[in-house]
Amino acid sequence: MKLPISWLHDYIEPAVIGDLHDFAEKMTMSGSKVEKIHHLAADITGVVCGRIEEILPHPDADKLVITKVNIGAEDLTQIVTGATNLSVGDYIPVALHGANLVDGLKIKKGKIRGQESNGMLCSVEELGYTKADFPEAPENGIYIFGKPQELGSDARVALGILQDVFEFEITSNRPDCFSVIGLVREAAATVNSKFKIQNSKLENAQSVAVRDYIDVEIANADLCKRYIAAVVKNVKIEPSPQWLRNRLIACGLRPINNIVDITNYVMLEYGQPMHAFDIRAIDGGKIIVRNAADGEKITTLDGEERVLCADTLVIADSTKAVGIAGIMGGEHSKILDDTTTILFESANFYGVNIRQSSKKLGLRTDSSGKFEKGLDPNLSLTCINRVLELVKQLNCGDVVDGLVDVYPESRLEHKLDFDPVRIDALIGVDIDLAGITEILERLGIGVDGTTATIPTFRSDINIWEDLAEEVARLYGYDNIPAVIASSSNAGGKTVAQKMTDILKQTMVSLGYSEMLTYAFESPKVFDKLEIPQQSHLRNVVRIINPLGEDTSIMRTSPLNAVLTALSTNYNRRNARARLFEIVKTYHPNSDTSILPDENQYLVVGGYGDMDYYHIKGVVETIMSVFGIVDLPQVAPISHLSFMHPGRTAGFAFDGENFGFCGQVHPQILENYEIEAPSYIAVIDFDMLLKYAQMEKNYIALPRYPQLARDIAIVVNSDTINAQIVSIIEKSGGKYLKKVQLFDIYEGKNLPEGTKSMAYSLTFGANDKTLTDEDATKAINKILNALEQQLNAQLRS
Questions:
Q1: For residues 732 and 728, what is the distance between their CA atoms, to the nearest angstrom?
Q2: N or C, which terminus of the chain has less Cβ within 10 Å?
Q3: Nearest-CA neighbor of 40 among 190, 252, 217, 212?
Q4: Which of 169, 163, 133 is nearest to 38 (CA)?
Q5: Per-residue pLDDT tens for 705-749?
Q6: In this structure, what DSSP letter does residue 373 have?
Q7: Distance from C-alpha of 369 to C-alpha of 22, rounded to nearest angstrom
Q8: Quick one: which of 13, 415, 458 has its CA closest to 192?
């Protein structure tokens, strides 16, 4: 938000403002951050006001003349020019020898066709402006002042272009400060100065004469809080006066004509967007504020035809939409050179709807930017009156008596409990009641006993803590003493965050690199992973306004991310890759009012010098690190379309799926252009948190020696290790300490359809030294159980 210092001086005495940089520091410390101070036209120097005293023909050039210019010095200044619009007595801007103009142009004296020239007469273009900024300037020629100027005075001052402008960074919760009046109010409170705003009042406001021209109906009062219409007849479209144009230019707006400039001026002054319609375009003499019909079309002021949806609010007449509410007017109803009667609109629209409509249409304007922050409906009346006041002041037309003001539900000042003791305690200083009351009243907040009355323009003050913040910022944050916090609650990471750190450290120690991927994916990934059409993974959360199809859904599986990363590494000729990521997947609820479910997984992937046992070992290491002594039940699975059916295992705890690991299906690798066998593991992070045992129980070293025995058994080829280990652990007795598979053999000397599996068994006791007999008894029990349950035979 830009605020010219000259505009601020209209309300607060310059002496109160003082040094600009000191004032900027005060405003920043009170919550209105000054981003920058712009010094407009500061790069233009050496340009003064002069008067043409004599014009002589150039003796050696038909298209040049010699001018004698009075710049207030004892002698006249001779300047050669090619301009044809000059007359004796004209007051003009003169760039003297050594002057600096825009774009780094430096003026030097010299000779032109043999005649001395000691400077240059300036057009507005040479001063960095255009004919739109100075409509009275000639198309091609020297700018001529409309009235006499002090000779030798600074031409920038005479033109009104020498200005200092504050640029504020305003937070979105303060829509009132996106205006000159709002910033004036803050400035006056900051420097503790009085200021006076003369509110405009329309004469004969209660007259019904305006209803001969227009009527208003609000069809959706939830989206349109207030709509005021005023009419001006006998309109004269012409350039605005220079003072108004200069203020618009200083705030970064381009002057257009008096009517448009008035609406823009009031928008800057009060922060209320305004709009003007040619009343000839309003069929039926009635404004209807309604929702658009699905597919309804309108051509906006930028010349673009836009297709609307039913959520978009429009300003319509009896037959068509004439504007998109709060965003942009329609081309059909714009002000033309032959417009004679104008309808001025001052309205208040629901900010959330304006933002949503603006995003859907891809159309963001100054108007939508202000409405979406939430404006005060009471501002609408103030601004329509100000517009009509300017219409009269600038003699733009005749104001028709009366207003059409539709205000379904008035916004009133609201009350908050006021407790100065609590406010002092929260801030940490001791300010007396009078001091707190004085600060709040500077901001327009009334205090009466235990109640504070909040004005309607301060929608950001809703709880008593907000009052404390207002007091603190005007009291001065730098005046609040620094103390050590009395709270004994030390900050720290949650259990989940700590376990995440441990998990990442573990993966890095195993030689894996962390990757970071987007949660947005393409719907095509399901076909790429060959996920069945009926799979729940295809039920996705869709992005309403995606950057493109490739980022149009939220992922439901972590696989595409890791396989895409592996593909990138493989196709960049990396011989091996080891990657991991802790990712979230997103799953929609049947009730769309509830946010999607988020599940968290550890996904691990790699290729090069890997096999199934490598990836299974990674899973086992993670289980060990997290204290999961009783490893989950592991079993082959073949229902995952993206995994190799014979080289994939799933693991579970008490029937709850914990994850899976194994080799990626060759067809899927082909889809991802990976020619090397690749392996992945997916672990449910929430399950890992549930079963983790992070407390370490230390066990003393055994006092008595342990016995080790190896057995090799012959079992059917489809028997899995988990089955055998379970039987051994259950039948091995209390002395069995450890079971470790160390060999699998299939081939010669074994019956067809069988395999040999060899295990190392460790026995030990805490109270005695075991004998061979103790170990033999346990092994016999184990072999008997294996034979009974699996028909296993001891390999001879």
A1: 5
A2: C
A3: 252
A4: 163
A5: 999 999 999 999 888 887 898 899 899 998 998 898 899 998 888
A6: T
A7: 30
A8: 13
DSSP symbols for 383-428: HHHHHHHHHHHTT--EEPS--EEE-SS----EEEE--HHHHHHHHT
The two tokens of residue 72 are: 């207030």
Residue 679 pairs in a beta bridge with 606, 663
Give the CB-side neighbour count of residue 383, counting CA atoms within 13 A: 32
What CA–CA distance (Å, rounded) separates 259 from 302? 18
Residue type, 624: S
pLDDT at residue 590, as a whole number: 82
Distance CA 757, CA 476 (A): 79
pLDDT at 489 (0 to 100): 66
- Identify the helix (H) or strand (E) that includes residue 93: strand 91-100
For residue 604, the one-letter residue type is V
> How far apart (Å, rounded) are the C-alpha atoms in residues 271 and 693?
59
Question: In the chain, what are the helix, strand and coil shares in percent, each to the nearest 5?
Answer: 30, 30, 40
Burial class (CB in 10 A: 0-12, 13-18, 19+), 790: middle
- Given the DSSP bridges, would you call strands 451-454 and 553-554 parallel, antiparallel or unpaired? unpaired
At residue 161, what is the residue type?
A: I
Tell me the pairing of strands 513-514 and 577-587: parallel
3-state SS class at 327: coil
| CA atoms of 358 and 365, how far apart (whole Å) | 8
Which amino acid belongs to residue 480? I
| Lookup: tokens for 186 | 């803050």
The model's confidence at residue 485, banded by pLDDT at 50, 70 and 90, is: low
**Cα–Cα distance, 512 to 606 (Å, whole number):** 9
d(C-alpha 647, C-alpha 637), whole Å:
8
List pLDDT tens digits, range 614-650.
999 999 899 889 888 665 566 677 778 899 988 898 8
pLDDT at 657 (0 to 100)? 83
CB atoms inside a 10 Å sphere around CB 630: 10
The predicted pLDDT at position 482 comes to: 84
Residue 447 confidence (pLDDT): 93
Domains of the chain (ranges; CATH) run: 2-41+164-191 (3.30.56.10), 45-161 (2.40.50.140), 209-406 (3.50.40.10), 414-478 (3.30.56.10), 495-691 (3.30.930.10), 707-794 (3.30.70.380)
Q: What is the DSSP letter of 664?
A: E
- State both tokens at 625: 């690190």
- Looking at residue 488, its pLDDT comes to 58
CA-nearest of 255, 254, 214, 262 to 236 is 262
| 522-573 per-position pLDDT tens digit | 999 999 999 999 999 999 999 988 888 999 999 999 999 999 999 999 999 9
In sequence order, the β-bridge partners of residue 47 are: 95
Locate 293 and state its tokens.
Answer: 């019909």
Residue labelled with tokens 């901001």: 443
Output the furthest CA–CA distance in the chain (Å, rounded): 134
Query: Which residues are CB-neighbours of 39 under 8 A, at least 6 positions away?
Result: 164
Report the C-alpha gap between 371 and 232 in whole angstroms.
Answer: 25
**CA pair distance 121, 51, nearest whole angstrom:** 11
Q: Is residue 100 classed as helix, strand or coil in its secondary structure? A: strand
Tell me whether residue 503 is exposed, middle or buried, using C-beta atoms within 10 angstroms of its C-beta: 0 to 12, 13 to 18, 19 or more.
buried
- Average pLDDT over all residues of the chain: 90
Written as one string, the DSSP assignment of 674-690 is --S-EEEEEEEHHHHHH
Consecutive H or E run containing 553: strand 553-554
- pTM score: 0.65
In this structure, are residues 367 and 274 in contact, taking their beta carbons and an 8 Å threshold? no
Residues 6+ apart with CB under 8 A from 771: none
Task: Spell 595-627 as b/e; 16+ CB within 10 A means b.
Answer: ebeeebbbbbbbbeebebeebbebbbebbebbe
Phi, psi for residue 524 in degrees, rounded to 5: -70, -15
